[in-house]
Amino acid sequence: MSGPQARGTASGDGDGTRAVRAGLPEPAKYEPTLPGPVFAAHYHLPGEPTGPYTYGRDENPTWAHLERAVGELEAPGEDGVETLVFASGMAAISSVLFSQLRTGDAVVLPSDGYQALPLVRAQLEAYGIEVRTAPTGGDAQLGVLDGAKLLWLETPSNPGLDVCDIRRLVSEAHARGALVAVDNTLATPLGQRPLELGADFSVASGTKQLTGHGDVLLGYVTGRDTEAMAAVRRWRKIAGAIPGPMEAWLAHRSLATLHLRVERQNASALAVAEALRDWPEELGVRYPGMAGDPSHPIASQQMRRYGCVVSFTLPTRARAERFLDALRLVDDATSFGGVRSTAERRGRWGGDAVPEGFIRMSVGAEDPEDLVADVLSALEESAR
Ligand SMILES: *Cc1c(COP(=O)(O)O)cnc(C)c1O
Predict the structure, then answer these.
(1) Which terminal residue of the chain has fewer beta carbons within 10 Å of its beta carbon, N or C?
(2) What is the phi/psi pair of residue 326, to 5°?
(3) What are the beta bridge partners of residue 202?
(4) CA torsion 201→193→185→113, rounded to 10°?
């Protein structure tokens, strides 16, 4: 981490303690605990234009607090780790890919990752970058790694919830001279710490469970390679993909409840997954935290918590639509990670290789008994 650690957190503190204190500045008399958002396009800057604060596209004190906070959660106690915040998860993802890759380089992307990745792929190819793909589970990345400059992992994958062995793939990639980035959106830093597992970058959308209220778009990149991070910072500057101060402040405010939300939502997600598994129809339920899930053996080695997303497949599109209509507590909406449960028929977007009846459900902070009852009654009603 650059500079001294914030007074509040030490690497040995528990996740809840770190979440509520992450990134807070030294207490100062009459100042608020978390300083309010700084709205500034420019700063008073007489004489030589040296930082820390010169122009609003380059630096902002509200980002600086949030960046320190995310760094304390992604890589507690690690020195030399830097975090940069972005306008969205896609801005963060693009900043790594487009700052690290040059014409003639090769990159390995997941074939089953976030639905905007195919658009990124087309853009990379337009720049003369070779894109190879491999599914998240099953180690197929190893077969396409030779000569690649960067390996991009998304684990657990969205929406399929497959996982890959980060430590193993990092060691194979590093042995071949490739950098590794992990999309940590679904796990959150309380669920998984990619840098600790050897990755060079942890990249995420803060739009999802990190901020958790469905009202902010945000992204970040955490990395320990100084040179690589300087290139990411330069990309943020030239693309201008910066978060507004209000969004950054809201995100920091939301981190204080991250641990509470994650504990609650993830425990409820397991309860919902188990209820779906025990339903008399076979629904192909997936949840990496559920014993017996194909992802569980690897997930349990590298994840500390398993996320709030559960997926399952109803027999037909019509049944899935009836199911979504019949839910009372779960809104039909995209995205995930919010305190209010949502679900959607993922196939409606057309971008993911999923069956027509595939449902991605994001479990919120409602009472778990209420949610399970709502899901079971919607299953029953939609079966009629
Ligand atoms: C949502 C999501 C993104 C994109 O984030 P935005 O904040 O919507 O730009 C990237 N990766 C994963 C895994 C996501 O779920």
Answers:
(1) C
(2) -80, -15
(3) 182, 222
(4) 70
The DSSP secondary-structure symbol of 42 reads: B
Query: Ligand 1: does its nearest atom lie under 6 Å from the Cβ of 205?
Result: yes
Index of the ligand 1 atom closest to the CA of residue 335: 1
CATH code assigned at 331: 3.90.1150.10
Please state, in angstroms and rounded to a whole number, the distance separating the CA atoms of residues 121 and 166: 22
Span from the CA of 115 to the centroid of ligand 1 (angstroms): 9
| Ligand 1 proximity of 94 Cβ (cutoff 6 Å) | no
Domain final residue, candidates 237, 255, 273: 255
Provide the pLDDT for residue 1.
37
Question: Do 31 and 156 lie in a common domain?
Answer: yes
Q: Which atom belonging to ligand 1 lies closest to the Cα atom of 113?
A: 13
Instruction: List pLDDT tens digits, range 275-317.
Output: 999 999 999 999 999 999 999 999 999 999 999 999 999 999 9
Answer yes or no: is the C-beta of 302 below 6 A from any ligand 1 atom: no
Number of domains within the chain: 2
pLDDT digits (tens, 9 = 90+) for 230-257: 999 999 999 999 999 999 999 999 999 9
Find out whether the beta carbon of 185 lies less than 6 Å from any atom of ligand 1: yes
Beta-bridge partners for 311: 286, 360
Q: What pTM was computed for the model?
A: 0.97
Last residue of a domain, one of 255, 272, 306: 255
Tell me, in angstroms, the distance from the centre of ligand 1 to residue 117's CA. 10
Q: Is 184 in the pocket of ligand 1 (CB under 6 A)?
A: no
